[in-house]
Every structure is written in structure tokens, then in C-alpha cells.
Amino acid sequence: MNEQDWLSSTDPTAMLRYVTGTEDGERGNGHRLVSARKLRLFACACCRQVWHLLTDDATCGRCNGKGSYHSSITRDSRIDHPCADCSGIGRINRSRRAVETAERYADGEATEEERQQASCAALRATEGSPTNAVVAWASLGDTPQGAAQHAVNIVAGKPALAAILRCIVGNPYKPVRLTTVLVGGNMGLPHARPPWLTPTVLRIAATIYAEQRWDETGVLADALEDAGCSDADLLAHLRGKPYRMRCWKCKGSGKMERTVRDLERVDEGFKTKSGKGPCDEVMIYDRDGTGRRLQTCREGWFEFQTGPHVRGCHVVDAILGKE
What 3-state class would DSSP assign to 153? Predict the structure, then answer.
């Protein structure tokens, strides 16, 4: 899979095979371009695409549906505490809770025991509706790659899932690296973070990540620009602008040498002359899974639409130093 294939693909299964190094078969070449954490977060993001279908409603096991529990101080007094598991309402959506647990597990905030308990609870949700358990179960597979592939298999809308995977992985041919300033020359000392990763930028990025406020990545882009960031690709991704790939024919200039016919008539016929004209290179690709599409070079670039921002977004991860 080359860069053009990656940016224009609507097949998340083929993309998964590429980034997990299994493009040539089940065992593959062992060259992985994505971490286990990102694979699990991709599975969770797939499940969130059908969040409205996860309608499981069960009694909270911790408070037995009361919404609170009490602790005794003396024989005649007690203090009621709101139940943290159900937020005091006495009911719990086991399927959504399973997805949320899988997200915390991917970030090392939940234990293996919690993951297994969430898996069992998600399976019990099958009694109400198979969709509730099957979709949520995709995020809790025993292996990250298995969870990701299972999510792709059961969630509809493959072009949208491909766009989500691009948001999480980024462009493997142009990875975002924010530790490129070497401290102390070539003495093997650690790399420094860019100066525009200010406390304000880090606070905004952490809030977006922790509170799932992915519609506010444009605010993060503005903060980065105000702090001195000039990385056009990074800012464009946060603002939801299309991915861009330089045209290989005109090398990004948008112009190319062309031989044109001169309108001036001479004795031997029409005269020809050379000059620069607009690049007319055409790319053929399958943009939305409905058939082949054509795109003409636009001032030296081809553009591919980006997907929604999700937990695991490669730019936010890079800013926060996540794998």
C-alpha cells in the first residue's frame, strides 16, 4: 500500500493489514506501524459510531438499583453516598460501559480484571438485544488486532471507519514527530520538545482528550498557532481540512512544460512553441466505495477528505506524548 492508496482507501480491513504488518498473509512481515493502544482505541471509535444503538438498561450491581449506598458511623446514624458506577441513577448501560472500560484499559487506566468483568457484563446484555453486546464486545477482544478487526466486521459504513483509522494512525509516509530538536549537538542527549508546546496548549489538548471534546480541536489549532507552531499539516488536520499529497508530475508547482500551437501563421504552417501550462495529471481512486473516481491536480496537489476526530487522534497523541 503506497501513500496514495492509504490516503484514498475506503477499505479499513486492507488498511489494518498494512499497519499491522499482515498485508502479505496472517503472519505478515512483522513490521507494525501502529501500537496495541491505538488498535484498541480504533475498535472503541468504531463502536462509538453506533453509540445510539447501544440501548442496554440494567440494574446497577453495586447499589442494587438504589443509586446510593450508606456507611454507618454510629449505631443510630448513617451517611448516604451516591453510587459512582451508575452516577446515582441506579441503572447502567453495560454495553457503553464496556466501551468506556476498553478505552481506559488501552490507556493503562483499567486493569485486566476490570476488562474481563466489562466483557462478561457486555455479554449478559445479549439478553436484551444482540446489538448491545456484539458491538461493545468488539472493543474488548483478547488481542488488540482481533478487537480492531472484529469492530470493522460488524460496524457498517466502511469509508467512515477508514477515515477514523487515518485520524488515529495519521499518514505513515509522513508521521508527525514533535521531538526533532537535538539538545547538546550530537552527544546522544535527549531530544527537546518544540517551544510551542506551551502549558496552555498542553492543557487544552489534555481537556479535549479526557472529556472527549473532539469537536474543539480547532481551538487547539488556534492555540498552537498563537504559540508559534507553523506546521501546516498538523494545523490542517486539527481544523478538519483535507489531507494533501504533492503531485508527482509537476512536483507541487501546478505547472508543467507543455508544447503549444502558436496562432501566428507562417509560410510552412502553424508554428509550435514551448511554455508552462497548468498540470493536467489525473489520479484514479475509489473515494467512497461506489466505484472509480477521478481527481485532477489542483495547483500541484491532490486532496483527500479527512475523517472525524476521535480518541487516539495522532496529532493530539503526539502533543500529549502518547504512544
Answer: helix
**Furthest-apart CA pair in the chain: how many Å?**
117
Of 113, 131, 163, which residue is a domain's last?
163
Distances (CA, A) of 35 to 72, 236, 269: 47, 24, 65
Which of 235, 162, 234, 164 is CA-nearest to residue 8?
A: 162
**Residue located via cell numbers 480518541:** 311
Q: In the prediction, which pLDDT does 281 show?
A: 66
Q: How many domains does the chain have?
A: 3
Inside any domain, residue 150: yes
Q: Which of 43-52, 115-124, 219-228 has the lowest mean pLDDT?
A: 115-124
Residue 212 counted as domain residue:
yes
**Model confidence pLDDT, tens digit, residues 85-110:** 666 556 677 888 889 999 999 999 99
Give domain status of residue 122, yes or no. yes
Residue whose entry in the numeric block shows the C-alpha cell 499482515: 22
The answer as to whether 86 is a domain residue is yes
With 0-12 / 13-18 / 19 or more C-beta atoms within 10 angstroms meaning exposed / middle / buried, residue 297 is buried
Residue 98 is placed in which grid cell? 464496556
